[in-house]
Write a structure and sequence with these properties.
mainly alpha, 2 domains
Amino acid sequence: MKMTQSKRRKPYTEMNAKELAKATAKYDREFVIDRSVEPTAEQKAQWQRAKRKRGRPKVGKGVQVISVSIEKGLLKRTDRLAKKLHTQRTRLISRGLEAILNEEVAVK
């Protein structure tokens, strides 16, 4: 297996002043903005993915966090059912609300 040039190079701590100056000469130049190029479409897409906000995926019109008081026994039952159905508590509550709201519309 071939060793790269950086693997064969002597560590900076073991170089004398002349060797160190030669090895670090590339860092003495000013910013090299003139050598930069327009990013490719793939690079632009990668940049957009990197700077995109993280978090939950948007569902419907988004979410609104609210504070709701629920009796402890009912909450425990809800959590057990959510676990049994392999879903989240939030999804289970949302499903329940949707079912009630749809039933109300059907009755009217």
